[in-house]
Amino acid sequence: MTIVYPDIKPWGRSFKEYVRMFNLTPDDLERKILGCGDGPASFNAEFTERGGNIISVDPVYFFSADQIRQRIHETYNYIIDQTRKNQDKFIWQEIGSVEELGRIRMSAMEKFLKDFSEGVMQKRYIPGELPFLPFKDKEFDLALCSHLLFLYTDNLSLEFHLKSIEELCRVSNEVRVFPLQDVNADRSSYVEPVINFLRTKNQDVKEIKVAYEFQKGGNTMLRIC
Ligand SMILES: C[S@@+](CC[C@H](N)C(=O)[O-])C[C@H]1O[C@@H](n2cnc3c(N)ncnc32)[C@H](O)[C@@H]1O
Predict the structure, then answer these.
(1) Could you tell me the strand order of the sheet in which 53-58 lies?
(2) Which CATH architecture has domain 15-224?
């Protein structure tokens, strides 16, 4: 079967998953980090608890915690259902079943929801959206973008990808994007055009293997400096 997402879904991963998706080292975790499209991930909440310096930006932060909770509940069954019908596209090793996946994601999203109001007051959750971010040039050391660019190849154009990655490079000294696959676990047709475009802009671009693989074959990130 084919996975179809008519729009971009709020779905949240944990700090532990971010560390592995982006090969984050102890030195990386000392840097000023931007999480772009973090949505209801618990990365910001958990990293802040560990003393990290992190700002997340996402259009879902225009809404209240109750509205975001409502949206998560509206989309939860759809995502779980699509995943169940397409189990062959994933590696069920660390996460053993669709039910366990649901529990792990909900636990991360609950952590986010608990932290959201305080994080808004502390300006750790900033409403905004690519391709234009409300930040100064090189305000961050490292920008991370998980499960937005490339994943939503069917929803977002190549032009959007080029502008968005240029914008991430404007606000951060280094940018990492994961995964490079679309929702059906196929390599996004945008990866090579994006790499070629960035090289014409004299950016150093590398595809790097990471210690995380849930979508089959989805174990590399793009690192741009
Ligand atoms: C699938 S979720 C991924 C959440 C998180 N990064 C993770 O990996 O757990 C995609 C997120 O991208 C956000 N998003 C959608 N359009 C965006 C845009 N133009 N700029 C930034 N974020 C966007 C959505 O609101 C949603 O929270």
Answers:
(1) 125-127, 53-58, 32-36, 140-146, 172-178, 220-224, 205-209
(2) 3-Layer(aba) Sandwich (3.40)
Q: 133 in ligand 1 pocket by Cβ < 6 Å?
A: no
pLDDT for the residue numbered 9: 86
Ligand 1 center to residue 148 CA distance, Å? Answer: 5
Q: Where are the domains of the chain?
A: 15-224
Ligand 1 atom at minimum distance from 39 CA? 27
Q: How confident is the model at residue 3 (pLDDT cuts 50, 70, 90)?
A: confident
Structure tokens at 58: 């996402």
Using the mean position of ligand 1's atoms as its centre, give its distance from the Cα of residue 166 in Å: 17
- Residue 59 Cβ contacting ligand 1 at under 6 Å: yes
How far does residue 43's CA lie from ligand 1's centre (Å)?
13
Task: Give me the percent of the chain exceeding a pLDDT of 90.
Answer: 96
Mean pLDDT rounded to a whole number for the chain? 97
